[in-house]
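During the second year of the project, the team shifted from modelling isolated chains to modelling whole assemblies. The rationale, set out in the original proposal, was that interfaces cannot be judged from single-chain predictions alone. As a representative example for this report, we include one of the complexes processed in the last quarter. Its constituent sequences, exactly as entered into the pipeline, are reproduced here:
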Amino acid sequence: MEQKLRNEARALLEQGKVDWFIGFEAGSLKFTTTPLITKDKNDTNRLVINPFIVNNLANFLTEIKGRVGIVAKGCESRSIVSLIQDNKVVRENMVILGIPCPGVIDLSKVERLADKDRDELDDIVREKDRVTIKVKGKTKGFPATEVLFDHCLACELPTPQEYDILLGEPSSPIASPVAQEGIKKLKQMTPEQRWGFWEKELSRCIRCYACRNVCPACFCQRCFVEETEPQWVLPAPRWQDNLLFQITRNIHVAGRCTDCGECERACPVNIPLRSLTREMYDIVGELFQFKAGMDKDALPLMTHYEEKEAEDLFR
Amino acid sequence: MANRKINKRDIVKLLNQWGQEFAVFVPSRESGVATMARWEGKDTGFLDWYRNTIVPKANFLPAMEEMFHFQKNKEGYNIELPPDGGKQLIFGIRPCDARALTIIDANFKDLYKDPYYLNKRSSAVLIGLGCTNPGESCFCTSLGISPAESKDVDLMLTDIGNEFLVEPISATGKELIAKTSGLKEATKNDEARAKEGKKTAYDKVTRKIDTDGIGDRLLTCFDDQDFWEKVAAKCVSCGICTLLCPTCYCFDINDELIRQQGTRFRSLDSCAFPAYTKMPMENPRAEKWKRVRQKVCHKYGFFPMNLNAIACTGCGRCIRLCPVNWDITQVLNSVPAKVKGV
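Output from the structure prediction step:
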């Protein structure tokens, strides 16, 4: 699959069908990859597909000018479709190389299971439903569901729906209930307990805005947190303001969020942000029977109006 | 003064003893992220760790701090300063993070006097803890730092098996040893083991950069837009690498005003944010590549030019925590020797 991807990507650049290509290459640390954004056909030899392709590459589409070839897992394809709906990108300007994705490995989960820092692990190998971890000559096997990201366990579209070329055989959703455990626990709490939970979690926030900046759905030219007149939130990491930032961001991406999980993964201080975004995703599904990024011809949820869904006030 | 040693089992007693005089801080994961937190008298599990995500600079330059509270009265304003935090003892600071404080001192202590920083910094005691197992992202040795040695602390601890070798580094460290009970004289054998451990740790740091003439090389390619655009392509302009950098000290000031009173806060800011340089008419660093260039050139070019030290300690946080694996060592190692067409 990797070789096929490299060939296709090279051909696209060589034949001038695209100006840019976006994919993954090996990262500089063990068990990492890094986005490869290039115009140079020779760079395509470095493209990889492995269980560590964590980023949502669709995030780069809005800042690149010209025609783009892009590697898309299911989550990327949904983000791309959502961006098409919002007129942020033009379908004709993209060549999408679809990758059926069996789920991406969450290194934090591996670290917890192995009780070792990632730096001390010798190897992590994914084979179908198993993941094997090697530490100092010893190997330990786990069901893949124990080490994949929660958002991968909950992924509804591992095989992209929107693509030009599909590389590899389609994979099917894992649909593990583990993915919703965090949210379930939160729902069982009393409002006071939940408030206390978020106070503790959001007190760690340093306002690096990584959650916002890795999010393909957060494409505003100017974010409300940077407004000064009026100043909606204090641009300093006080927990109440952090909460306001997260809640507002979550409402802004309602109907655009595809549950790709990037916000939570990028967070350097381990705030369980997906508990907020996934809950919103489910609420959107329940209230509007809408799933972001599934149909490029559908109108974007929050920017159009249908008589049947309106409240009496608007009828 | 001869070196001392202490059994690892006695660290609890030692910290409790120091707790009588100081506000003791130790690495902790209690809050959900590894950071320096108040010692609570029990858990010394942190002794087995690598390093904190949140940098100990936060004890002196917090992510957010109240500068003063103000209230309007008939004559003008009544200003109220926040209470003094007392003397801090930071236990377990790594050599890279300790060096970072020396680097920040060059700006906040020597170049000009920052009262908020100095108030905390000048009364603080630093107890260094050498790394035995540096991480994959660490590159401290390229910046003249040894993972298990430090001149930037008051006392330095080195793991020698069941015990730590305790070396007094500063005058404050010597005083502290003199009034601390429960320390034993270190033997020649202990010293030898510590020396060996330091060397082993040093050799484990495999990530390297070439700092030779780096400032000049950066300035030579300063206007090479192609180079910087390539380097910046995957950056998402978040603040992780700067806010969690042990040497970054840029801050922003904001007032929160409610009717006739309010509070002035200062909080860390980041040159990765477009708003950092935004002015009424224009933004000189609106483009991402200019911001990435600024970050690299400030650390490795301008800071050394002005204050005679590279503003990086090779702690590797910016590499490990970056959501896109943007790696400053790769960038520095790819700085062209000569700019095109010159």
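Chain B has two domains: 4-204, 214-333. The first helix of chain B runs from residue 11 to 19.
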